[in-house]
Amino acid sequence: MHIIFLFLTLILLGFVIIPVSAQKCNLPPIPEPGEVISGFKTIAIDDIPENNAKAVHFEHEKSGAQIIFIQSPDTNRTFTVSFKTPPTSSQGIQHILEHTLLASSKNYPGKDVFFDLVYNGYMSYMNAMTSPNYTQFIVSSTSEKQLNAAADFMLDLLFQPSFLEEPRYFYREAFRYDMSDPAAPLNPVGVVYNEMRAYDTNIMTKANNQTMQHLFPDTPDQYISGGDPDEILTLTYEEARDYYQAYYAPSKAKMFIYGDVDYQAFLARINETVFANAEKSCANPEPVYQQPFSAMKEITVDIPVDEGSAVENQSFLQLAYGLPKNLDRDDRTALQLLMDDVFNHESFPLKNALRAQTIGSDYAMAFNDQSLQPSLIFQAQFADPAKTAALYATVLSTLRETVAKGLDSDLIRRSSARTCWLPAKTESPMKGLELIMAMTSSWNMLDDPFYGAHDAAQYAAIATKSLDYFIGLIQNIFWTTRMHCC
To answer: What is the C-alpha separation between 437 and 467, in angstroms, rounded?
Structure first.
C-alpha cells in the first residue's frame, strides 16, 4: 500500500453539558484602555456582536502573562489557558506534558486529580488538547464559584506540577517497560504511547503526517506533535522537564475568562495566587519558516499492512501547496472558502473531473490553517497509485478551465452564505468555548486573538468581492511567477 504526495510551496513576497444562559442587565462595566486592575493592564477592547459579547485584552505588567475577558450574559462560564508549544521532534513531548501536568500538583496532590474533578465536580466541560503548535487546557461550569475553584486548580497543575519532583507521572503517561513474566520480552506501555500506536494504524493520519513532514521539512510542522510511537520511546524525563521549563512559564500563558463573571474579582484572585510573584521569562525563539523548493517533490511512502490484506486501489494521493505565514488576511479567508466549500461542492467541476479519471473512490479538498504556514490539500482516497500524474493534471486543468470560463457567482454566494448561519451558533450551549477555540487558534498561529472572533464578518466581507478577485487569487496561487515547486 502506498501514500504518494506531490508538493508545491509558493512564496508570496511581502461530559454532560446542561448550561444555562440568562440575560442580565447589571454586568459590571468594562475598563478603559490603559486601566490597571490587580496588576493587569487593559491593552485592547473589541466588540463581538456575533456572540453578544465584548472582549477585553489584559497584560499582566509584572509577569507579561495575558488574559482576555469575554463579557457575556452567558452563565456557562469558561476559563482556558494555552501555551505556544512548537514541536522540536516527533517524540510527543507536547502531548505527554499535556497528560502529565494534569496528574498532580503541589497544592492538589494525588494519583490523577484532573479526572477526580471531572468525575466528582459539577463542571459542564473539562479537557486539554495538543494542537500542532500550541497546547490548551479548558474548564467550564455554570457555577461561578465552581469555575473559580477549577481555575485555581488548573493553574496549580500547570505551574506547580508534581512531575518536576516525581518522574513516575512522566513514565506513566509517556512510556515504561512492563514484563508480564521473567521469560517474556520487555513490553513498552504508557498512556500516550498506547494512544499514538492506535493512531499510527490509520492511513489517513499517516497521509496527513507525511504531507506535513515533506511539505515543511525545515520547520516544526515536519514533526508529529502527538508523537510517533517509535520516537516516543527515545524521549527522556530530562528532555520533557527541560521543554516544560522553556515553554510553560506563567509569563507565557495566554488565558481566557468568558461569561457572566466578576472579572475584577477573578483577576485579583489569580494575581494573588500566581502572577504577583511570577517573573518575566525569556521569549522563545520564533520558529523558522519554510523556504520554497526549486522543483516539485514527489514522495512515495510504503505502509505495512497485515498479510493477505487487499492493497489494490488502497493508496492515498495528496497534492499539497505550502503558503507563506504572512498571507494576506482576505486571501486567507477567500482560500478557505474556495478550498473547503467551493472546490468540494458537487456543482463545481473538480470532483466530476477526478471521477472521470477513476483516480480514487473519493476526493477531498482542504485548507489547513493549523500549521505555521497554511497549506492547500487535494486528496484522492483509496486510489490507484499509477494515477498520481492524473491527479495533478486534472486539478490544474480544471482550475485553468475555471479561470477561462469564470466562477459560478451563485456558488460563491451560496458558499459564503455561511455568514447567514454562523450567528445561529451563538445559540449553542457551548458558544463560549467555540468562540474561545477560534480565538486561541488565531492568537497562537497569527498573533491576533481577535481575528478568530469575527469569522462571520470576514466571510461577509469576502462575499462582497468581485468574481475577478477570486479568479485572480486562483491565478496567483497556482500560476504566479513567484511560485516555487517543492
So the answer is: 31
Q: Write down the pTM of the prediction.
A: 0.89
What H or E segment, with its residue span, contains residue 418?
helix 418-421
CB 365, CB 393: distance < 8 Å: no
Spatial neighbors of 356 by CB under 8 A, at least 6 apart, are: none
pLDDT averaged over every residue in the chain: 88
- CA neighbor of 433 nearest in space, from 139, 168, 214, 67: 139
Q: How far apart are the first and last CA of the chain?
A: 24
Residues in CB range of 136: below 8 A, 6 or more apart: 80, 81, 82, 128, 129, 437, 440
Q: Which grid cell is 465?
A: 468581492
* Sign for the pseudo-dihedral over CA of 98, 102, 103, 105: positive
Contacts 24+ apart (CB under 8 A), 295-298: 295/485, 295/486, 296/6, 296/7, 296/8, 296/485, 296/486, 297/5, 297/6, 297/7, 297/214, 297/485, 297/486, 298/4, 298/5, 298/6, 298/7, 298/388
Closest CA to 38 of 280, 253, 262: 262
Q: Is the pLDDT of residue 229 over 90?
A: yes
- Going from the C-alpha of 418 to that of each of 27, 304, 467, the distances in angstroms are 31, 41, 18
pLDDT digits (tens, 9 = 90+) for 240-293: 999 999 999 999 999 999 999 999 999 999 999 999 999 999 999 988 899 888
Residue type, 173: E
pLDDT confidence band for 115 (50 / 70 / 90): confident
- For residue 190, which of 173, 210, 215 has the smallest C-alpha distance? 173
